[in-house]
Write a structure and sequence with these properties.
Layout lengths: L6 E4 L12 H9 L4 E4 L13 E3 L5 E3 L1 H11 L7 H22 L7 H16 L13 H16 L1 H4 L3 H11 L2 H7 L17 H4 L4 E3 L16 E7 L8 E3 L2 E7 L1 E6 L6 E6 L4 E4 L2 E7 L5 E7 L14 H4 L4 E6 L3 E8 L8 E3 L2 E5 L3 E7 L13 E5 L4 E4 L2 E7 L5 E8 L2
Parallel strand pairs: 1-2
Antiparallel strand pairs: 1-3, 3-4, 5-6, 6-13, 7-12, 8-11, 8-13, 9-10, 9-12, 14-15, 15-22, 16-21, 17-20, 17-22, 18-19, 18-21
Helix pairs in contact: 1-2, 1-5, 1-8, 2-3, 2-5, 3-5, 5-7
This protein binds glutathione (GSH).
Length: about 425
């Protein structure tokens, strides 16, 4: 019977869905052009606690990623030569295992300082190595150990990683190795599939805190707000929602407070003090939000889809015709968040809107004269009188109109409007 010359790597799902800590083992075996196969941990017969485990052609069976890498480094001729360099490689392999474990636990999302300390340490090892690699001028097994930790850091804490251009350049070099490329070609991610919350919208993930308030009746057209969702979020102090995903969205702070947002804006955790009346443009992404302040926080946001909609002919935006009544709080090329404040008895000039949705912040009575003629006179009876109260959502048609506050109290509204 022919001797078994192949290695076996035992790991979850036989490395078919994610390669995890088995990744550097696969890199080094590929780099050394060794034959190997992957198997599930339950088929392993040996005295080991947790995957990854390996079985080598000589019958050796072992676990612990760092120890496996040291063993393979020696066995495959990929360890440094001098005792001093060998010692540094051992340290680096163990450092990398610790760094990976901390990063993988998600702890860095909250402890960016700790993440930065780790990366500073790795950067120092590289800078003082006296060559292009972590332990000098020749690549060794510990470079693959370090690459696992740094690759993971680059995806988990990209913003912190960007502060270390030398580490990024080092990773680029490691990504050009045969070993790294051969594993990449398998198309299996290093970390398990996306976190909980991906693909689940906020209203389904946490109905206690998020309500879909997109207007459903009295719509100006059948395709009004197509692909958009107006959401009202209210989180009480101490309340934490479930992971969820947002498309691109635009937010307005109805009631301010302090939120901890995990996953924003770059996959890291942020504690943000939201001031009432502020607005912002928010990128798409997976989030989990906790109210870490002592007041209820209320946010309003419009999640948006593709751009669609008409621009009224001779468009005349109210923030230009009536800057005293209308101010743009946040905007990008596609949408804007606008605040309208019209005191009791005040009236604005004829102006026009693209598709927009209005949320009332105060109680008042708005009288609206609608019309396509921007020179029209606001005489006679208004087309509509709308008694507004806080929380009311108004689907207003695209086009020209004049607004007058015919109530006894000042009117405040916020609206989200397409910009093209
Ligand atoms: N220190 C070990 C950690 C091993 C480990 O945490 N393995 C994970 C998969 S990457 C596992 O499945 N652990 C199961 C367990 O600890 O019970 C190593 O670096 O290999």
């Amino acid at each position: 019977m022919a001797a078994n010359t192949a290695y076996t790597v035992y790991y979850h799902g036989a490395c078919a869905t994610f390669t995890g800590r088995a990744t550097p083992i696969m890199w080094i075996l590929e780099q050394a052009k060794k034959e190997y196969s992957c198997a599930t941990p339950d088929t392993f017969e040996g005295n080991c606690f947790a995957p990854p485990m390996i079985a080598t052609p000589t019958g050796l069976k072992m676990s612990q990623t760092a120890a496996i890498m040291m063993q393979l480094g020696e066995e495959l001729g990929m360890e440094p030569e001098t005792p001093a360099a060998k010692a540094i490689a051992i340290q680096l392999s163990l450092d990398a295992a610790d760094l990976f474990a901390e990063a993988f636990s998600g702890a860095f999302a909250e402890k960016t300082e700790r993440a930065e300390q780790w990366l500073t340490h790795m950067d120092k090892l590289l800078s003082t190595a006296g060559g292009d690699y972590m332990v000098g001028s020749i690549m060794c097994y510990a470079d693959f150990s370090a690459t696992m930790a740094l690759d993971f850091a680059a995806s988990a804490i990209p913003k912190t990683m960007k502060k270390f251009p030398k580490l990024i350049a080092y990773l680029e070099k490691m990504h050009a190795t045969d070993g790294w490329k051969a594993v990449a070609a398998k198309g299996v991610p290093m970390v398990p599939p996306p976190p909980a919350g991906s693909g689940v919208n906020c209203c389904d993930a946490f109905p206690d805190g998020y309500k879909d308030i997109t207007p459903k009746e009295g719509l100006p057209s059948a395709d009004y707000l197509a692909g958009c969702k107006l959401v009202h979020m209210a989180l009480k102090p101490g309340q934490k929602d479930e992971p969820h995903e947002h498309p691109m969205h635009y937010a307005y702070v109805v009631k301010g407070g302090k939120l901890k947002i995990v996953g924003a804006p770059d996959g890291e955790a942020m504690e943000v003090e939201f001031a009432a009346g502020a607005a912002m443009v928010m990128p798409a992404g997976t989030r989990q939000v906790e109210n870490v302040g002592d007041a209820e926080v209320e946010l309003l946001f419009l999640e948006v889809g593709a751009q669609a909609g008409d621009t009224p002919e001779g468009h005349s935006a109210p923030q230009e015709t009536d800057a005293g009544h209308y101010s743009v709080l946040a905007e990008d090329d596609d949408w804007m968040v606008v605040k309208m404040d019209v005191k009791a008895g005040e009236e604005d000039h004829a102006h026009s809107h693209r598709e927009h949705v209005v949320y009332a912040l105060s109680e008042a009575e708005l009288s609206i004269w609608g019309g396509a003629d921007k020179d029209m006179k606001a005489e006679g009876e208004p087309n509509v009188k709308v008694p507004i109260k806080p929380g009311m959502v108004l689907p207003v048609p695209t086009g020209f109109h004049i607004v007058k506050n015919t109530g006894q109290t000042d009117a405040s509204c916020v609206y989200f409007e397409r910009k093209r």
